[in-house]
Amino acid sequence: MTQITGMMALLVGIVFLASDSAPAQPLEAARTVAPPDTNASHSFSAMTNSDVAFPPNSLGNLIWTNFIAHTNGKSTEIWSTYLLPPNFPPGYVPGTNLPPDTVPILAWNTNCLMWGMKGETALSQCWTSQGGHGQAPVTALTRRHGYARGHGMGYAGMTSHFNGQRVYFCTKNNQVVEAVVRNAIVEIGSGYDFTILLFSEDLPQGIEPLRVADAKAVQTKYPSRIPLLPWVVFLTEQSGNVSANCAPFTVNTWKGGDSGSPDLLPMPGELVFYSGRSTSGPSPQMQSDMDALSRSAGLDPANYQMQWLDLSSYPTRQ
Q: If DSSP states are collapsed to H, E and C, what string results for the chain?
């Protein structure tokens, strides 16, 4: 994790202070300070956490206060161990031609920003159709359905292209769970960009599917562009880090191959999925596709519904 030393001052910006021996802390927010031996025209802006003023009952205030209470000394690194076997396919191989054993060795980093939050085990950064390390990740939204990007996944519609592919999840006690793809629907175009994978069996209790939130509702309750206020969200990326979108917990999350990585609201004790990186968030169409896949396997769709976080009690921000 990056250590930040010294002080950066911006006239209307953000300053973060730390030392090599001090653990990382969230950003400090802006206050004008005039050096004693100069006039006020040479003042600079610095911020302290007390200057961050979200409305008391807002979604932003809930996320920010929880974030600063739990991030001292934390890391952006998701995994302490991520090892692929030598025969792991370097690119797409039909499911029927995969080697007999492709199970990786995975272990969570218990000092990660996300560690211990409900829903963390729904994040898979390893499957046999990934190509590059951690690319085109899969996120469990029900016990039978995984979410991935839509572009680059083939033609739109129901497809057997991914049948037999293996998706690897990890329980909190580092037991690797292999989920085999049985069917899929790709949505690309008409305003959609996502793929839903149907697993051959329910995920075990050790894997907790993420609750979901409507991306438009998130923006009305917790806008991303309010001057001088931090916008803390958790964004995973292919090399195994999570960005909090807030210094010093920031990493590049917009590289080629990051598409479809989950964008997450860090609610108290829980991660909530609201969008993919450059891809679609949860929607009635997504649930409809899940229902169609469930019916194709003779399953009752009522048992595999996305669980929605209700944001209606939070005030709308302008």
A: CCCCCECCCECCCCECCECCCCCCCCCECCEEECCCCCCHHHCEEECCHHHCCCCCCCHHHHHHHHHHHHCCCCECECEEEEECCCCCCCCCCCHHHCCCCCCCEEEECCCECCCCCECHHHEECCECCCCCCCCCCEEECCCCEEEECCCCCCCCEEECCCCCCEEEEECCCCCEEEEEEEEEEEEEECCEEEEEEEECCCCCCCCCCCEECCHHHHHHHCCCCCCCCCCCCEEEECCCEEECCECCECCCCCCCCCCCCEEEEEECCEEEEEEECCECCCCHHHHHHHHHHHHHCCCCHHHCCCCECCCCCCCCCC
